[in-house]
Amino acid sequence: MAVWVGLGALALLVGAVFLQARALARCRFWCPSCGELFALPWTKLLFRQHINEEWRLTCPHCGQKGWCPARRPYRGGDNP
Ligand SMILES: [Zn+2]
């Protein structure tokens, strides 16, 4: 029985990772090297290393790999 509980937990975890990637695909990331804002398709955001809102990504503009702060999608209002 434990194996089914394990599989269920794994399915939930995978689902959470997918949902997180889908949500992140709507965000913009700021490159600390060249200062450009960029978006990535959710398939490229799966299993990325991150600390809070900073994601280890490769910038599509300058090709530098670095910690890129995520900007949440604009929802109106001055301070989201
Ligand atoms: Zn860059």
Characterize the structure shown.
This protein has one helix spanning 2-24; strands at 28-30, 37-38, 50-51, 54-58, 65-71. Helix content is 29%, strand content 24%. It has one domain. A five-stranded antiparallel β-sheet has the order 2-1-5-4-3, with no helix packed on it. The mean pLDDT is 89. The relative contact order is 0.18. The protein contains one helix and five strands. The chain is an alpha+beta fold and 80 residues long.
Number-wise, the strands total 5
The coarse silhouette is elongated
The percent of residues in helical segments reads 25-40%
- Distinct ligands, ions and cofactors found in the model: zinc ion
Distance between the termini: 45 Å
Largest sheet: 5 strands, antiparallel
Q: Helices and strands: which structural class? A: alpha+beta
Oligomeric assembly: single chain
Strand content: 15-25%
Strand order of the largest sheet: 2-1-5-4-3
Low-confidence region ranges:
none
Secondary-structure blueprint of this entry?
Layout: H1 2-24, E1 28-30, E2 37-38, E3 50-51, E4 54-58, E5 65-71
Antiparallel strand pairs: 1-2, 1-5, 3-4, 4-5
This protein binds zinc ion.
Zinc ion binds at residues 31, 33-34, 36, 59, 61-62, 64.
